[in-house]
Design brief:
The structure is a homodimer. Chain A has a single domain, classed as Farnesyl Diphosphate Synthase (Orthogonal Bundle), CATH 1.10.600. Chain A contains 15 helices and 2 strands. Chain A has a two-stranded antiparallel sheet. Chains A and B meet through helix 4, helix 6 and helix 7 of A and helix 4, helix 6 and helix 7 of B.
C-alpha cells in the first residue's frame, strides 16, 4: 500500500471536511477567516479526520455527521497547535508561517480560543452528548499534559512520564477520532472499546515515530524547522532507550538529570543516539503499537474501510522509509 | 431590596456551584487545582450562576442540573477572565493576584484552555445539545468581540461599535445564563425568548454601569486597579455621549480619532466627562435596559424567583449608589 493509499475510500470527503472547517469563520471577524483559511491551506495529512471518516463509514454513520465530526476533530487539533506554536515560539509549521509569526500573542491566544469554541460548536452539531463529553475530556487531557510539561520541563526522568506525555499529546486525540463515531450509532461496547484501542495504539505509534524522525530528519522531511526536542529540554523515547544501555555516557546522564546541554553536547548526544540501537528499538515499540492497532480491529467484517484502517496502521512507520 | 438580596432564594446553592467548579480539577495536575482554588476563592458576586439558578428554579429544572449548568457558566466566564487578564497584563483582580501574575504566559494560556475544556465538559453533563450549542456560540461571540478589540483598538469611533462590543463581552454570557435552563425543560418559545431578552438587557445594563464606574470609582470600590479604560485606548459610553454634546472639545476628538492621549490629557478628559451630563445619560441608558429586563419577565407567574430576578435588575444600577 503506497503512502496515503489508506485514505482512498474517504478521500473525496476530505475537501468537504475542510469546507466545513472553513465555514466556521462565517459571520465572524475577517481576520479570523484569514487565519482559518491559512491554517487549512497549510494542510497536513488530515489523518485524524480520515480515521473518523473511516470508522464512521465502517459503522454506518451518515455522511453529513461523519464530515461534521471529522471537522470538529481536526479543528480541535488545529486549535491546540495554534496555542502550542505560540508557547513554543515556533514561527513555521510545515513550511508555513504560524499564526504567532504573523499576529501578536494576544490575537494568537484569541484565535486559538475561537477555534476551540467553533470546534465545540461542531461537536455539538453532531448531536451526541457522549461525543461532546469525550470531546471536552480529550481537550482536558491534552492541556493537562502540556501543563505537566510547562511545570516539569527537565524533570521528566522516567520513560513512563514519556508514555504519559505522548498519550496526552497525541494518542488521546486519536482515541477521540476513532471512537466518537461509535457513540453516534450507539455501537456495542465491544466495538466501541476496539475502536478506542485502535485509536490509542495508532496515536502512540504515530508519536513515537514522530519522535524518531526528530533524530533523523531534516527540515524538508518533516516540514518543521530542525530544532531537536533535546534543544528544548524534551526527552523522548530514543534518549531513554539509549540511556538504559549507555549508563556511563555522561551526556545522557546530564540530559536526564535536567541539566542544560550546550549546542555541541546536544549534537554529540544526537549523533551517539543515532549510532546506537535506540532508534531501532524505538521503532520496534512503534511497530508493536501498530500491530496492536491492527489486532484491535481484526474481527471487524471485511470492508474497504477496514482494509484502509489496517493500511493506516502500516503507514505510521512507513513514514520512516 | 438590599444589595444581593435577590440571591436569597438560591443562596444556599452557590457553595454547591463552587464545589462543582472546584471538582473539575480532580484527577489533573496539582497546579491546576491550586489555580482553580485561587480563582474560586477570589470570588465575585456569582451573578451569572445566580441568574441560571433563579431561571432554573422558575422553570422547574432539577437542582442538580441547575447547579451543573451554573458551574459551567461561571467556569466559562472564569476561563475568559484568565486569558483576558493575560492579554491586558492585569496583575490583580478584585484585589487578588491574577494567574498571569503568578505563572508565565505559557502556563496561563494552558490554564485558561483547561478551564474552557472543563466548562465544556460541565455543559455536556447538563445533557442538552441545545445548551451545548449555545454555550459554544457564546464563547465564539465573546472571543470574536475581543478579536475586534485586538485589531481595532482606537478605531472604534461609533457608539454602535460600543454596543456591539459590550454585547459580545458581557450581555452574550448573561443571555446564556438566563436562557439555557429553558432549553433543558424544552420551554415554550415565548418563555425562552423572554429569558433571552432578560439576559440580554441585564447584561447590557451591567456593562454600562461597569463602564460608568470606571469614571467614578477608585480601586477600593470596584476591586480593580484604577486604570481608566481611556488609558487603554478604550472608548466607552460616557465618552461617546460627552462627545456628542461637546463637539468642540479637542481632547475628546483626539480620543475618538484614535490618537494617544497623554496622562494629563486623559485626566482632564475624565474630569470633563464627570462634570458633564454624560454620566447621568449613560445611567439613563442602563436604567432603560433594566426596565426592559423587568418587562421581559413581567407576565411570568408570581414566584419568589421572579421577584428575585426583578430585584437583580434593580441591583445592577444600585451598584452606583
Amino acid at each position: 500500500m503506497t503512502t496515503l493509499e489508506f485514505s482512498l475510500p474517504v478521500q473525496a470527503l476530505i475537501p468537504r471536511v475542510e469546507e466545513c472547517m472553513r465555514s466556521q469563520a462565517n459571520g465572524y471577524r475577517p481576520e479570523l477567516r484569514i487565519a482559518l483559511d491559512q491554517l487549512i491551506k497549510a494542510g497536513g495529512k488530515r489523518i485524524r479526520p480520515t480515521v473518523t471518516l473511516l470508522t464512521s463509514a465502517l459503522l454506518g454513520v451518515d455522511q453529513e455527521r461523519a464530515i461534521t465530526l471529522g471537522a470538529a476533530v481536526e479543528l480541535l487539533h488545529t486549535a491546540t497547535l495554534v496555542h502550542d506554536d505560540l508557547i513554543d515560539g515556533a514561527l513555521t509549521r510545515r513550511g508555513n508561517p504560524t499564526v504567532n509569526a504573523q499576529w501578536d500573542s494576544s490575537a494568537t491566544i484569541l484565535a486559538g480560543d475561537f477555534l476551540f469554541s467553533q470546534a465545540a460548536y461542531l461537536a455539538a452539531e453532531v448531536g451526541s452528548i457522549d461525543v461532546m463529553r469525550m470531546f471536552a475530556k480529550t481537550l482536558s487531557t491534552i492541556v493537562n499534559g502540556e501543563i505537566s510539561q510547562a511545570f516539569s520541563l527537565n524533570t521528566f526522568t522516567q520513560v513512563d512520564d514519556y508514555y504519559e506525555r505522548i498519550y496526552a499529546k497525541t494518542a488521546s486525540m486519536f482515541e477521540l477520532a476513532a471512537r466518537a463515531p461509535a457513540y453516534i450509532v450507539g455501537a456495542e461496547e465491544e466495538i466501541s472499546a476496539a475502536l478506542l484501542t485502535y485509536g490509542y495504539e495508532i496515536g502512540m505509534a504515530f508519536q513515537i515515530v514522530d519522535d524518531i524522525l526528530d533524530f533523523s530528519s531534516d527540515s524538508a522531511t518533516i516540514g518543521k524547522p530542525v530544532t531537536n526536542d533535546l534543544s528544548n529540554g524534551l526527552l523522548t523515547l530514543p534518549i531513554f532507550l539509549y540511556a538504559k544501555e549507555n549508563e556511563s555516557d555522561s551526556l545522557v546522564l546530564k540530559a536526564i538529570e535536567g541539566e542544560q546541554l550546550s549546542e555541541d553536547e546536544i549534537q554529540n548526544l544526537i549523533a551517539n543516539v543515532r549510532n546506537s540501537n535506540a532508534i531501532a528499538e524505538s521503532l520496534e515499540q512503534a511497530n508493536e503499537h501498530q500491530e496492536n492497532a491492527r489486532k484491535a480491529i481484526k474481527d471487524f467484517p471485511e470492508q474497504t474501510e477496514k482494509e484502509a484502517l489496517l493500511g493506516l496502521a502500516d503507514y505510521v512507520s512507513a513514514r520512516l522509509l
